[in-house]
Amino acid sequence: MRSGPNPPSKAGPTYRIAVALPLCLGVLTLTGASSAPIAAQGGATGTITGRVRLQGPAPPNAVIRMGADPRCSRATRGQRITQDVVLRSADGGLANAFVHLEGKFPATPAPAEPVTIDQHNCLFVPRVAGARVGQTLQITNSDPTAHNVHSVSQTNGFNTSQPKQGMVYKVQLKTSEVMIRIRCDIHSWMTTYVGVIPHPYFAVSGADGTFTIARVPAGRHTIAIWHEAPSGGRG
Fold first, then answer.
1. Is position 8 within any domain?
2. Rg (CA), the chain
3. Is 9 contained in some domain?
4. What is the pLDDT averaged over residues 175-184?
5. Domain containing 216 — which CATH number?
6. Which residues, 6+ apart, have CB-to-CB distance to 163 below 8 Å?
7. How confident is the model at residue 43 (pLDDT cuts 50, 70, 90)?
8. Which residues contact 170 (CB under 8 A, 6 or more apart)?
């Protein structure tokens, strides 16, 4: 069985599968103690581990030119900074895929600790993050230059300036959204994405494409996978 994309969102397509099957963006392989479906045993939970792979070579990522802001240029002098839309390991692992389960789950409180994004060397770090509905998103300006954080969102909207190094902005995420795109209106190359989910069953794939979702309730689950640009690496 093959899965296809849902209608494209403003940030990128999402693919949905019920088992480990070929995808247009690559192959999701499920391994580990428990995979979909997880055997129903009273109160039992399992761990879903897997890997998102990109079939074929990765498209080139554009080089970022930071000359518009001399402070950004100085901070990255001698480095070749690229717009890391598609990061593929040597054996095909795809980084920065947001993986989450769909469906309804028992309500649990959102974590008290915030999800953090830093602005460092005129880039958002990390490029992709996940958060719970009700959790706080904390964005810090670690650069000696002004930044602006502007979410492209209908329900989790914010737009604020951070003109000084060390400034911190905190906002509570109110509703589910896959994905929120956050940009800097001062530096057009700066982009990050946050997936907001009402439950804790999500992960972001690492540099080798692997991910782990722990303590998943027993049952059959649908896994949704979002990537910024699975169609040839272009948004």
1. no
2. 18
3. no
4. 96
5. 2.60.40.420
6. 146
7. low
8. 114, 136, 137, 138, 139
CB 225 within 8 A of CB 23: yes
Is the model's pLDDT at 35 over the cut of 70? no
d(CA 18, CA 223): 6
- The more confidently predicted of residues 12 and 220 is 220
**125 lies in a domain?**
yes
Q: Supply the range of the domain harboring residue 84.
A: 14-103+110-226
CA dist 181 → 9, 33, 184 (Å): 10, 34, 10
Strands 115-120 and 136-141 come out as: parallel
Closest CA to 22 of 110, 101, 92: 92
How far, in Å, CA of 202 to CA of 33, rounded?
17
What's the rounded mean pLDDT across residues 188-213?
A: 96
Q: Give domain status of residue 235, yes or no.
A: no
Number of folded domains in the chain? 1
Average pLDDT over residues 111-136: 97
Q: Structure tokens of 22?
A: 């070929």
Q: How far, CA to CA in Å, does 65 sit from each of 82, 141, 190?
A: 9, 20, 11
The phi and psi torsions of 219 (rounded to 5 degrees) equal 135, 180
Q: How buried is residue 5: exposed, middle or buried, by Cβ count under 10 Å (0-12/13-18/19+)?
A: middle
Long-range contacts, stretch 149-156, CB < 8 angstroms, 24+ apart: 149/119, 149/182, 149/184, 150/182, 150/183, 150/184, 150/185, 151/180, 151/181, 151/182, 152/10, 152/11, 152/180, 152/181, 152/182, 152/183, 153/177, 153/180, 153/181, 156/180, 156/196
